[in-house]
């Protein structure tokens, strides 16, 4: 008797687990719809085949993209992330593609056994300026190949995607931990409705954020403490 009761409980637990495993994405999807509908948070979409370069501040090997989403949510300075489905790499960015459009590039990459093979690949691509070789994952990535320049590479890119942080993303320059380089960068990152006011800036990249007034109409700052020449940034 007792053992059949235990069995029943085990069966119940197993079916709950089955439900969770099969329907968690439905739950996740409906959460996203809620954020879209409520209008305050815009819907963010995965952009396939692309990554944001030069803003990565943390990188992990994580088995699924939703774990990367969780990591991003735990870091106050995370603005967006890149995830590679094939190699299961999660990269957190401290900028969005809107702030740094020049660093938003297609990620043609190959799994190659040695770094010199990566040099060979780069030599074969007219738009390749340099390459990165990751020894741990044995990935060869070519830099400065735009999607437009080499659409055929876009197809061969492994499954990288880029997405802006879904929830709780602090606007660039709104906290001292995430200073912007310029008023222009803030407006680019957060849209044309960004209001004039005080923001955290670190124009000299010295790691010292200062609260400075940005006039968002003409995207210049007004501060006696900052060298006037820096206003051109
Ligand atoms: C953002 O990430 C870049 C690239 O890793 C790094 O050089 C920079 O110091 C970071 N900025 C902040 C404010 O964390
Ligand atoms: C690629 O590199 C060239 C030369 O270094 C530079 O002029 C161009 O702006 C770069 N393009 C991108 C998208 O980074």
Automatic annotation (TrEMBL):
Apple domain: which residues? 41-118
Is Nucleotide-binding one of the keywords UniProt gives this record? no
Q: Which InterPro entries match?
A: Pan_app
Q: Which residues form the signal peptide?
A: 1-31
Q: Which UniProt keywords apply?
A: Signal
Pfam families, sorted: PAN_1
Please report the name of this protein according to its UniProt entry. Apple domain-containing protein
